[in-house]
UniProtKB/TrEMBL annotation:
Residues 158-188, 352-403 are annotated as: Disordered. The lineage of its organism: Eukaryota, Viridiplantae, Streptophyta, Embryophyta, Tracheophyta. It comes from Eucalyptus globulus. InterPro entries: TAP42/TAP46-like_sf, TAP46-like. This is PP2A regulatory subunit TAP46. Residues 176-188, 366-375 have a biased composition (Acidic residues). Gene3D superfamilies: TAP42-like family (1.25.40.540).
Length: 403
């Protein structure tokens, strides 16, 4: 959208240019410069309307001419454009937009354009019962849908009439001296602008409600921040902590090449202290967890002086056996057992590779082997001779019927 020369522009042209900016900002996202140009143009429209005195306090909608009805929408367009301005502190923008909306609705009420009872929903302290508010919102939604349908119908009617007029002009030649017939659509234009104003009133009431809630939330957040101060961690602090942790890990990995490995950390709390720099790995840490003690509070960690106290202490004891050590202690004991096993295995390997173990396993003299072989051969021969003399099954012949 090009630059607007608003200095010498008449009111109708200035209003149309500003209305186009408002329509573009409503239907799609536009840059902030365009929004500010639209606000500037609508501000000049307000000044020109006030200077020309187009509206009077003792007038109603019936007294306003059709050509001036559209200028009633200037405060509403200005409020919607002001709400789209981006700024660090949004509360002043919300307040300025609400003022314009209230000004627009007050003028519509004076012109008898605002339905009765609508302002009660937006004024704090009014009769804002939940049922009434819901009923008014439903009625407002129906009016908004009806106004949109009516505007669409008027637009289609104008387009059809324009096409018919164009077709008639092409088919019927105009004779010399014949006057052109001009359609008098002032009533239709008046109906269209009144419907547009009704639609704007519905949107203005919803927008005012939304802006009030947003202002309340932002004010509460601002008040909370002023009381508690800035307690949230900024991105710089988080990056610094991350960088410190990475540097610690990098340095620890470098030192691990040349130093003796430290004892493994089995306590999560101590490990967190080491990571955040509150402790060192070389520090001694106790992480023994005593089993839970059940019983009355007066007997916990106390001495049982009588049989009555001993029985009272056993009342709330669990029905299962409690652990005698923590997970960390069991892990340390298992590591110690593994270290002993590795030491014993290394000792056995050293003995197996020693000269004494090899000499112990050396075979004896050759003569002893020969003697053992002769004895085995003689025993085998005697067994063969006995098998020849006693064939298999020979002792069972008497058990057979024919034996």
């Amino acid at each position: 959208m090009g630059e607007l020369n608003m200095e010498d522009m008449p009111l109708p042209s200035l209003f149309e240019q500003s209305r186009k900016i408002h329509l573009a900002a409503t239907e799609s996202a536009v840059d902030q410069d365009t929004v500010r140009r639209g606000i500037e143009g609508l501000g000049k429209c307000e000044n020109m309307i006030s200077t020309l005195g187009l509206f009077s306090a003792n007038e109603t909608k019936e007294d306003i001419s059709t050509s001036n009805l559209k200028y009633i929408l200037v405060p509403f367009y200005l409020a919607e454009l002001m709400e789209k301005v981006s700024a660090d502190d949004r509360i002043p923008i919300l307040k300025a937009s609400q003022e314009k909306l209230k000004e627009f609705m007050s003028f519509c009420e004076a012109m008898e354009l605002l339905p009765k009872g609508e302002l009660e929903t937006s004024v704090p302290g009014g009769s804002n019962q939940m049922v009434d508010r819901r009923a008014r919102k439903i009625a407002r939604f129906k009016r908004q849908k009806a106004a949109e349908s009516k505007l669409l119908e008027i637009k289609e009617r104008k387009e059809r009439r324009g096409r018919s007029t164009k077709a008639a002009a092409l088919s019927t030649p105009v004779e010399a001296g014949e006057e052109e017939m001009v359609d008098d659509d002032s009533e239709e234009e008046r109906e269209a602008w009144l419907t547009t104003i009704s639609l704007a009133i519905c949107k203005a009431l919803d927008l005012l409600e939304m802006l009030q809630k947003e202002e309340e939330m932002l004010s509460a957040i601002k008040e909370k921040q002023s009381k508690e101060g800035e307690k949230e961690f900024s991105r710089a602090i988080l990056d610094e902590r991350t960088k410190t942790a990475e540097t610690w890990h990098r340095n620890a990995a470098t030192r691990a090449r040349y130093t003796k490995p430290a004892q493994p950390i089995t306590c999560a709390t101590f490990a967190q202290d080491v990571l955040e720099g509150r402790a060192y790995v070389s520090d001694a840490h106790e992480h023994k967890h005593q089993p839970l003690i059940f019983g009355p509070a007066s007997l916990v960690n106390g001495s049982l002086t009588s049989e009555r106290d001993r029985i009272a202490a056993q009342v709330f004891q669990p029905g299962h056996r409690m652990p005698t050590m923590s997970i960390e202690e069991a892990g340390l004991k298992e590591m110690q057992m593994m270290q002993k096993f590795q030491e014993r295995t290394a000792k056995f390997m050293e003995e197996a590779n020693s000269a004494w173990y090899k000499e112990r396993k050396q075979p004896g003299p050759v003569e002893d082997e020969d003697e053992d072989d002769d004895a085995a051969q003689e025993k085998a021969r005697a067994l063969d001779d006995w098998k020849d003399e006693n064939p298999r099954g020979a002792g069972n012949k008497k058990l057979t019927p024919c034996g």
